[in-house]
Amino acid sequence: MIRLYQFEPAFGLPNASPFCMKLETYLRMSGLPFEIAPNANVMKAPKGKMPYIEDNGHAIADSTLIIEYLKKTYGDKLDAKLSSEQRAIALAMQRLMEENLYWAAVYSRWFEPDGWRLTQQAFFGKLPPPVKTIVSAVARRGMKRELHGHGMGRHTSDEIYAIGKADIGALADLLGDRPFVMGAEPTSIDAVAYAFLANLIWVPLDTPLKRYALSRPNLEAYCQRMKARYY
Question: Would you say domain 84-230 falls under CATH 1.20.1050.10?
Fold first, then answer.
């Protein structure tokens, strides 16, 4: 059986990491049997990040590479009927969320004061107080370097949120009144979209990104649809 290693649930979501939630959602959508490993330790992860899986004696890291592995190993029921054009659109939207919108969300969680209080407790809250302070500070400095290296961290707060809202708007426009991102039936891009949107809309943190996402009613309706179907 596939063994999934990820962070613990937080914020009332299956996972506070959209990448972990993406993979768990994909596993649920695909119907593959899996179990969630208790007490997963990010320090033991093959690439130093969550999520990762163990399957048939092999450890595979990175949510996208894991899904590619699962498709090749167990078949691709979700995306088999997509056209080449649909696959291109799905990939473009995945990159929009994972490589751009993600960093705007990181800014809101890790560097805004209210966001940092919530994030620090969610990811480091179980550590003893002195360790929590040190480890979370180190992690925050590392995230700041990553945000700056990506380029998002070089912008002002207003610019960051404008970029993130444009991404959310593009996703809302693509979804329109369809039940799922690519149409009438769910595909693997829905695992990505649900994970990222739920981590904006349903986290108990007031941000410009959340407010804008809630201003597009089709996005929360979509999240409710995904939740009812797979959770």
Answer: yes
